[in-house]
């Protein structure tokens, strides 16, 4: 196969990247290849697409394509050499293959348990189920259909369900987010492509396979997750909802079982393998394991606020175009941004989980504490853009190097946010936040500001410690010089953004195993991932680690 990169076309000139036909792109590819007479392109597909807005309002689609020809491998290689074009090369796409068990693997005497059904747990379960392990997935939250209803009740009525919210339940925290699939993981084994292909298999749009910043959107991701669950069950897996993994049962440093808490009470499930993929918000589970002396360490994470702007402002600054009809004609999505600077304190200030055309959501999971997050549908067609503006915090801010100090720091910020808004999402115009002034809003219009959840005008500036508040203000003022209007009258802040990542790392060895043999800390909650794709990849790696040591139990033993 031959890959051609850096093919440039004016935006909107070829039907857009999601079009089923690309005549101009194909014609340009043929011209660049200069195929010998009598030979032709047999297949053609886009493998990467981005938008170049450096010369706005003149905008360009940048493509990389993969083509097959009727030339043999030797002839293709010779053709590529003759072109002497650094943007054209022979490409052999990596296909992911689940590794075969090692010769000394033992047979599992009981089913592998997976605690959590976020991306790490789901992909671990999917790979194990595909390979005959029949995993048992323990999910403390609700199945998707019930979870969506419970989250809706929180947003509409302010009634929190600790088992069904934006953090806990089928699909994990990423289900109520923008569904971003970017990853900084350098993966040469094909795992990342396998994740994207799997999402497409279960209903995600095909453009996630080639967009530079792919995303599914919360509306589509919910269905994808359910289809994955159904396939895992078809392959012999099982899901137990409203079933929380608790204390471990161990013997001579090895796992023998897991206490689980259900609506019917506490029971022990025998286990030799537990994949711990509980997500970054399972604080009670972290405390239980810490009390059992499961090795873990304090980990830095980021905190801050959500800042909201009209999407038209961001489109105008990024594209040089704000008219929605013109953007649609050019097949341009709602524009995003990625911003970073350094405050005078030395701390980095940066945008995190930017949601074009999205919503700020009440992402609380515990009574008396409030956290916010960002969420977008696939279409990203809401009227406002939002992003977390955060700074990294560690032992200096926590006031202690004690392992759970970061967790306690998180909880205190969320308690302040809850009190500030009286249980509603606290909102403040950015100017008042900057000046530490009493807010001028008569009422926080949640619908106008695209907030999912009850919102109220409140002193958001009082939630964060003064030093962090100052850093965030410095950052937003610096970002205003890059995107004029970023610190303007249409900017609003909500708090608190505290669940950016786990406050601890549960230690594991080169085999991805804890010092408690049979315990596999996995994904974002264990401190080894940062987002949907990287968590899914870590889930795959963990499934591989289980398979290196264990063979599936015999079918008759399951029955």
Report what the structure shows.
The protein has 559 residues and is of the alpha/beta class. The protein contains 15 helices and 26 strands. A 7-stranded mixed beta sheet has the order 15-16-19-14-23-20-22. Strands 8-7-6-12-25 form a 5-stranded parallel beta sheet, with helices on one face. Strand 6, helix 3 and strand 7 (136-139) form a beta-alpha-beta unit. Helix 3 (119-130) runs parallel beside helix 6 (218-234) and helix 3 (119-130) runs parallel beside helix 14. The longest helix is centred in the C-terminal third of the chain and has 18 residues, at 532-549. The two termini are 47 Å apart. The model has no long low-confidence stretch (mean pLDDT 94).
Features:
559 residues; alpha/beta; seven-stranded mixed β-sheet
Low-pLDDT runs: none
Query: What portion of residues is helical?
Result: 25-40%
Order of strands, main sheet, comes to 15-16-19-14-23-20-22
What percent strand?
25-35%
The total beta strand count reads 26
Content-based structural category: alpha/beta
Distance N to C terminus? 47 Å
Provide mean pLDDT, rounded: 94
Largest sheet: 7 strands, mixed
Number of helices: 15
Q: Shape from CA axes?
A: globular
């Amino acid at each position: 196969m031959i890959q051609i990169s850096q093919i440039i076309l004016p935006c909107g000139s070829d039907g857009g990247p999601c079009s089923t036909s690309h005549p101009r792109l194909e014609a340009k590819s043929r011209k660049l290849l200069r195929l010998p007479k009598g030979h032709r392109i047999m297949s053609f597909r886009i493998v990467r697409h981005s938008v170049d807005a450096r010369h706005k309002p003149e905008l360009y689609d940048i493509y990389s394509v993969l083509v097959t020809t009727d030339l043999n491998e030797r002839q293709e290689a010779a053709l590529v050499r003759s072109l002497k074009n650094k943007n054209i090369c022979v490409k052999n796409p990596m296909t992911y293959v689940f590794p075969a068990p090692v010769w000394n693997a033992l047979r599992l005497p009981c089913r592998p348990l997976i605690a959590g059904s976020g991306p790490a747990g789901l992909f671990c379960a999917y790979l194990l189920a595909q390979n005959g392990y029949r995993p048992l997935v323990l999910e403390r939250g609700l199945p998707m259909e019930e979870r969506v209803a419970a989250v809706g009740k929180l947003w509409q009525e302010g009634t929190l369900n600790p088992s069904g919210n934006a953090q806990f339940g089928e699909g994990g925290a990423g289900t109520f987010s923008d569904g971003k699939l970017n990853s900084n993981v350098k993966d040469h084994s094909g795992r990342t492509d396998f994740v994207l292909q799997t999402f497409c298999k279960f209903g995600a749009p095909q453009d996630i396979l080639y967009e530079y910043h792919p995303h599914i959107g919360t509306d589509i991701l919910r269905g994808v997750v359910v289809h994955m669950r159904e396939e895992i069950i078809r392959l012999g897996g099982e899901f137990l909802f409203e079933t929380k993994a608790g204390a471990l049962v161990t013997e001579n440093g090895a796992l023998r079982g897991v206490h689980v808490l259900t609506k019917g009470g506490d029971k022990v499930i025998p286990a030799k393998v537990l994949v711990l993929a509980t997500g970054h918000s399972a604080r009670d589970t972290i405390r239980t394991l810490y009390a059992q002396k499961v090795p873990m360490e304090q980990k830095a994470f980021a905190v801050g606020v959500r800042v909201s702007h009209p999407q038209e402002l961001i489109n105008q600054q990024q594209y040089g175009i704000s008219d929605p009809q013109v953007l649609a004609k050019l097949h341009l999505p709602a524009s995003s941004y990625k911003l970073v600077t350094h405050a005078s304190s030395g701390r980095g200030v940066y945008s995190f989980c930017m949601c074009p055309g999205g919503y700020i959501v009440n992402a609380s999971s515990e009574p008396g504490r409030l956290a916010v997050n960002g969420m977008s549908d696939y279409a990203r067609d809401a009227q406002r853009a939002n992003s977390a503006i955060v700074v990294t915090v560690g032992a200096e801010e926590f006031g202690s190097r004690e392992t759970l100090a970061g967790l306690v720091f998180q909880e205190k910020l969320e308690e302040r946010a809850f009190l500030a808004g009286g249980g509603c999402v606290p909102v403040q115009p950015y100017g008042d936040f900057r000046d530490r002034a009493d807010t001028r809003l008569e009422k926080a219009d949640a619908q106008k500001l695209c907030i999912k959840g009850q919102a109220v005008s409140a002193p958001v500036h009082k939630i964060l410690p003064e030093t962090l508040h100052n850093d965030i203000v410095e950052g937003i003022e610096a970002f205003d010089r890059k995107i004029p209007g970023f610190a303007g009258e249409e900017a609003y802040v909500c708090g608190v953004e505290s669940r950016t990542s786990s406050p601890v790392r549960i230690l594991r060895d080169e085999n991805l195993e804890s010092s408690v043999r049979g315990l596999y800390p996995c994904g974002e909650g264990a401190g080894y991932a940062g987002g949907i794709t990287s968590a899914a990849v870590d889930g795959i790696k963990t499934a591989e680690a289980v398979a290196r040591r264990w063979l599936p139990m015999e079918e008759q033993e399951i029955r």
